[in-house]
Amino acid sequence: MARPAKRVTSQDVARAAGVSRTTVSFVLNDKPGLSFPEETRNRVLDAARELDYRPRASARALAAGRSDIVLLAVPDLPIGEGISRFIEELAAALAAHGLTLVTHLAGAHGRPLPDVCATLEASAVTALDSFSEEMTEALHRAGAQVVLPVQDSAPAMREIGRIQAAHLLARGHQRLGYALPAGLAHAPMARQRLEGATLACAAAGIARPVAAEVSLDVASAARAVADWAGSSVTGVCAFNDEVAMAVLAGARARGLAVPADMALVGADDIPVARLAAPPLSTVAFDLHEAGRLRAEAIVAGLAGQEAPVMPAIGPQLIQRESA
Known about the structure:
Blueprint: H1 10-17, H2 21-28, H3 38-50, H4 57-64, E1 69-74, H5 81-95, E2 100-105, H6 113-120, E3 124-127, H7 133-141, E4 146-147, H8 154-170, E5 176-181, H9 187-204, E6 210-214, H10 218-230, E7 235-238, H11 241-253, E8 263-265, E9 282-284, H12 287-302, E10 316-318
Parallel strand pairs: 1-2, 1-3, 3-4, 5-6, 5-7, 7-8
Antiparallel strand pairs: 9-10
Helix pairs in contact: 1-2, 1-3, 5-12, 6-7, 8-9, 10-11
């Protein structure tokens, strides 16, 4: 069957199947309460498949009463392993409910989020951080049925630092260091994780961690390791696993062994953390569960139910050989 040069429409499918356009719409959208002879249904489905017909989003939205688009607002942060994995988990969980995830990157400095919401006719909007009241109202005016509020992430970030430090303190380390990422991109999150470690040290009655910036190169990490060694630091919390792996390289350059001379805890549990030498102890969230719960809240809201309160998913220590 020859395909038209232009975009295939439902009229093309109807003509190829020898039925009306209304019949095509009812068959392809599986209209409740209507049934067609199996032979008619098969003709429509075969024609749609052979013509590679894809209904327009507006047509699907009209048939379903809403679009299948969920818009995720990603703040102006580097897209690291943790954020990428959460987006993948959320996309998969939404797909199981027939919903499609689209991301909007604030760092791209493109169109405002409400404009994107209106253009895509997104039915739901969620985010990796919280929305202001003004933004929530703007998104509803743009057509979003569900705007899922997200709790302030600062307490969770502080909890990561607290768990890191508490683990090292429990293993007898009384002087801690904190490896901060170089540059401003992660500064707010890094400050929150350092605050959590500082609170754990204060609760234990010891000095605050000795903080040092660590770039992802051996020389920078070696300088930080030397400073920590000079300050009698025996346990180091790293902002994330990438920074922790730089610290490992810096320790080797200084002839120090981890964990014999300096214990180390990272964060985020990136896949290569378990392949480091030694494997990294780390702190991370269950991103699969986080994506599932977020998707269920969105689906409930789109169904007209009160969106369930998502239980806080606390980070957990994953202990390996580095600490």
